Amino acid sequence: MPLYKSIAADDETHILIWKITETENELSTGISLGKNSTERVLGMKSEMHRKAYLSVRHLLAIAQYTDEDLTYNEVGKPKLSDGVCVSITHSHEFSAIILSAKPVGIDIEKQRIKIETIANKFVSEKEKEWLSKHQNNIKSLTVIWGAKESIYKLYGQVGLSFKQHIELAPFNFKETFTRASVHFKEEIEFFDVFYLEFEEFTCVYTF
Fold first, then answer.
1. Number of C-alpha atoms within 13 angstroms, CB side, residue 71?
2. What is the pLDDT of residues 110-119, one digit of tens each?
3. What CATH code is assigned to 3-102?
4. Which of 62, 113, 140, 146 is least enclosed by beta carbons within 10 angstroms?
5. Residues 44, 54: Cα–Cα separation, whole Å
6. Domain ranges of the chain
């Protein structure tokens, strides 16, 4: 299908979300891949990953970029040729990009019960305290994971721990916004975190 959702987060930040319903051949039409990207797609064993990769190139095309405008730095953080900040995500049948004049991160996750079994790996003790008051633990945990993943992508530094270094402020589902802080290498930084839900998926993005 074409673009699933377009969100103007603010005057300088835009989010594009694609729902992948096409075949791989259909997704290969209408875009052009550079040599490195072609080799990368050919090396992917998973059809789901290939389709996600191609759908992201369609999102870039909607934003007036080509595959060759997108490169990655030494730690794998994506960047665009004109200096616009970009972050990329995909999960099952959804992919998304966020574009902004300022550093950004984005993550999409499917809401699954298995997240409860790994919560201890990414939820801090402070977060556990207020999380116990939430009625839907799976949705809340998915927001926490998505927030920390999007901040990790924005931060772009090796060694950043979800549990030890990133702290999410309490939130509720009557709102779509919370704050987070990163305590890393004797520095503290603060981030705005936004979240939304669709079709049993959670999308989280951060500035």
1. 7
2. 999 999 999 9
3. 3.90.470.20
4. 113
5. 12
6. 3-102, 108-206
